[in-house]
Amino acid sequence: MTLKVLVIGRVEEKESRVVSNGHTLEFTPHAGLAPDFLSPEPYSFVFMHLGPGNREARPAISKWVGEGWAHKVIGFSGGHIPTWCAALPITTVERLPSRHSFLELHWGAVRTDFSGPAAELLSLLSGNRCDTLVALAVLCQGYLSVHAVHTGPERLGEEPDEVLNALSQMGWDEKVGEIGRGELESWAAPSGVGDLMAEVSAPAWWRKVWDLGEGAEAHPHKWAALVARLEHECARRDTPATPGEIGTLLEAIQPTAVVGAGGRAIPPDVVSRAYTAITGILSK
Question: Would the pTM of this model clear 0.70, i.e. be above it?
Answer without folding.
Answer: no
